[in-house]
Design a protein that fits this description.
The chain has 334 residues and is of the alpha/beta class. Helices cover 39% and strands 16% of the residues. It has two domains: 218 residues, 3-Layer(aba) Sandwich (Rossmann fold); 81 residues, UDP-galactose 4-epimerase, domain 1 (Alpha-Beta Complex), CATH 3.90.25. The strands form four sheets. The chain has a seven-stranded parallel sheet with strand order 5-2-1-6-7-8-12, with helices on both faces. The chain has a two-stranded antiparallel ribbon with strand order 3-4. It has a two-stranded parallel sheet with strand order 9-11. A hairpin with a 5-residue loop joins strand 3 and strand 4. The longest helix has 21 residues. The protein is globular. About 3% of the residues have low confidence.
Length: 334
């Protein structure tokens, strides 16, 4: 079997590292994949468990010449595009930079992939939906309506990616969007994840001082990055097989993946405190919802339906949120 190259952008990030690990795991098992990752501002490396470290290629996605040269040199069959500015508050502080990365860089990457017959998996977010009470779960073809700039840039990125492949007129490439919700998992720093970082809130609250208000209104469906990495691999395998068989018309262009575990941020903090044996008194549940004067408005419930993935035969099972954290934090219990 001829080896296929997969290129993962944002491979030094929370999700990108796990996508690298997923493909590397299968590469070690079947010798099927050559795994390449790109990064820009960070110099970390990524590796499959117990396997050789994969070198990260420094790449400025804003430089079309660099991207084109890399694609021509590595000749990937698949690109998994994880790189993005994905923190809503940071997005609002740098709207132009975010649009340049989340939209325009994605557009250029899609155009170059379409021209070369590459399968591009674009990672998007549940924040493309309005999340109004009573609307979820959202099907992949449901009406979108972002409540903040982050969600809007990712939605614009979706449209840009799919638009470039449509304009290419089916030259052998294919663009598919994979939406995911709030992510957690193995991290180099707790602030890499809006879930992991709550550990710091719990520890700070346990030290005393002023109370910390924590959202107890918006519903979240935290999903493990290991599961997302495995789904990216499975989508790549399924879609390449269908494309090679000339069954492009049977492939959906919009996919969604999510855990069914449901928590508010306050409930996550309460779980962390219980696992760590810490008091929760210092954290106050905030049930007021969005502050109408806040620059970033969060949706109430953006639960994603996984129907489209199921219909193409992709396993949508996920790790148990509580079970994963009990194992992860065992060493930190007092």
């Amino acid at each position: 079997m001829a080896k296929k190259t997969v290129l993962i952008t944002g491979a030094t990030g929370l999700l990108g590292r796990q996508v690298v690990r997923a493909f590397s795991y299968y590469a070690a098992d079947s010798d099927e994949w050559i795994v390449k990752g790109t990064g820009f501002s960070r110099t970390a490396t990524a590796a499959a468990d117990g396997k050789p470290v994969q070198q990260i290629i420094k790449l400025d996605l804003a430089d079309a010449g660099q991207v084109e040269a890399l694609l021509d040199r590595e000749k990937p069959r698949v690109v998994v595009h994880c790189a993005a500015n994905r923190f809503p508050d940071k997005v609002d502080k740098d709207p132009e930079g975010t649009k340049a990365l989340n939209v325009e860089a994605s557009r250029r990457l899609a155009r170059l992939c379409a021209q070369r017959g590459i399968l591009l998996i674009y990672i998007s977010t549940d924040y493309v939906f309005s999340g109004k009470p009573g609307e979820a779960p959202y099907e992949a073809d449901a009406e979108t309506g972002p409540t903040n700039l982050y969600g809007q840039t990712k939605l614009d990125g979706e449209k840009a990616v799919l638009g470039e492949f449509e304009a290419a007129g089916g030259k052998g490439g294919f663009g598919v969007v994979l939406r995911v919700p709030i992510l957690y998992g193995s991290a180099e720093r707790t602030d890499e994840s809006a879930v992991n970082v709550l550990l710091e809130s719990v520890r700070k609250a346990a030290e005393g001082g002023s109370k910390i208000k924590m959202d107890h209104w918006a519903l979240r469906y935290p999903t493990n990055t290991e599961d997302v990495g495995r789904v990216c691999h499975d989508v790549a395998v399924h879609y390449l097989s269908a494309l090679d068989a000339g069954k492009q018309a049977e492939l959906p262009k919009m996919l969604q993946f999510s855990s069914e575990d449901k928590y508010t941020k306050y409930e996550i903090c309460r779980l962390f405190a219980e696992i760590l044996g810490l008091p929760i008194d210092g954290i106050e549940a905030n049930t007021e919802g969005n502050d109408p004067n806040a620059s970033v408005q969060r949706p109430y419930d953006c639960h994603l339906s996984t129907r489209a993935l199921k219909e193409v035969g992709i396993d949508v099972s996920t790790q148990d949120f509580e079970g994963w954290w009990r194992r992860e934090l065992r060493a930190f219990r007092k």
